[in-house]
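Example record

The entry below shows one chain as it appears in the dataset: sequence first, then structure tokens.
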Amino acid sequence: MKQFIVLITLLFSTTLYCQNLIRIHRTIRPRNYTRLSRTITTSIPRGFLAIDIAKAQSLNRYTSWKFINTQSKLKLTIDRKLKEHSLKSPKTIYGPYNYVRTFSKISRQESLISTQNLTEWRQLHHPQGFNGAHHLVNKYTIKLIHEQMKENGIKFNLSDCQNNAPAIFHPLHGNPKFKYIFHNPEQQLAEYNQFGMKVVVSNILNNIEKISIENGLGTLPELYKKSILLETEFWCKEYGLKF
């Protein structure tokens, strides 16, 4: 009987935050693959937005989702199964920072990466390359917003908020020439106070797209940008930020 029950799942990484629980599972047999699980627990009203996020993430052919709910809470799980050579370009990855950062860990298992994207993933940790996961809204910007809100009697967990903030990978992120785009908390704070987070993130994505085109990296797909804004809206509603 044992030879048929040889599916062994090893939980080797668990990271708990307020909005997202991220787990990596490795399945040894009968099929060798890595499963990345993201669980969102939220209120029923925000659950509809969480479902939209799951639908967008599940456009990847190896991603599925499911949810359970009570009268007040919804628990939604997004599972991404990474088979051999199935992980494509890091430029296709987006989501909360803790989720995107987890792909950095997974990418060290190079057998999961598509051969044509191997160089991109190897450059992920280069200071002049992707330089890891990138907070679209800088951590310092979030800290300044947190201080403003605290002065007005509104509190939230700063560390959780930063870890769940929208993030991406981008090959120009580590280039000092483009620091004014990727790391500009003063401008981000001014735009947030005047317009809200939707404008902040939209402007960042538009500026990233502009330098991407200028450097021969192409445009950012509209669906990619729309999906990031969904993640941003959900994040804002979870922490009481102005979207």
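Notes for this example: The chain is about 40% helix and 20% strand. The CA atoms of residues 236 and 243 lie 6 Å apart.
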